[in-house]
């Protein structure tokens, strides 16, 4: 495997109040991958990105971009990074074309009108190029933020909740562009609440909670390892408790006792389902319907955070 394009070691952030926003995070990002960072609000996702992009000062640790320390080589390193922040931060009285062009030159790149035109066309912004930013809709302003981040052709692109609160069309355009950028070799790190997007787009997934990186895993491996199946049995008559005759399968009762829930490994040689159904019949427990559901990345994510809380 080639050297990581981004290497984070012992990165910490503690505020004057004593709050630890990041707890010694270690993470390597591979060249050309899409890495999804998942976590609830306040987990430390934006703090991590803000430190790497030079917006927030860390309390300790280091970041290497292609082996170079990002603090000692800040100008050179910052040229290689693009950021689409959560908040809209623009001069609203500036025309669209000039604000995106200025972003390119701000990072020391030579003017390239053809490249700016290409970016604006890909984001459906070319027709609005002469429009003052304050006259654009919220979705269009979000597109401009993306264009500004791409204007200097960064090697690493950070997308901090990029599609939160945007329309379906922009979300689709956004992910088409992400795929094209990855094909061109751009490394993409995104934070998102839309877990289905991480499930669809990411090569690897990291889970952060309360400033601590609790898991980094290949998405496919994560799904294989933790993506179990759940059997729901809708009972004819509700149960007050799980009968002792079913204890070895450890099923749970839901919906006020009217549904029996059994979790199993779909890839196992023996799922336990036939023997469970036999035991139910022998115990006189009838059911009127059943269905199975594959665990999603969201189920896994919620489960990991609950496990961490229980262990604390």
UniProtKB/TrEMBL annotation:
SUPFAM superfamilies named in the record = P-loop containing nucleoside triphosphate hydrolases (SSF52540)
Q: Which InterPro entries match?
A: AAA+_ATPase (IPR003593), ABC_transporter-like_ATP-bd (IPR003439), ABC_transporter-like_CS (IPR017871), ABC_transporter_ATP-binding (IPR050763), P-loop_NTPase (IPR027417)
**Which Pfam families does this chain map to?**
ABC_tran
**Record's keyword terms, sorted:** ATP-binding, Nucleotide-binding, Transport
Where the record annotates domain ABC transporter, the positions are 6-235
Q: Specify the species.
A: Sphingomonas lutea
Q: What is this protein called?
A: ABC transporter ATP-binding protein
**What GO molecular-function term can you cite, just one?**
ATP hydrolysis activity
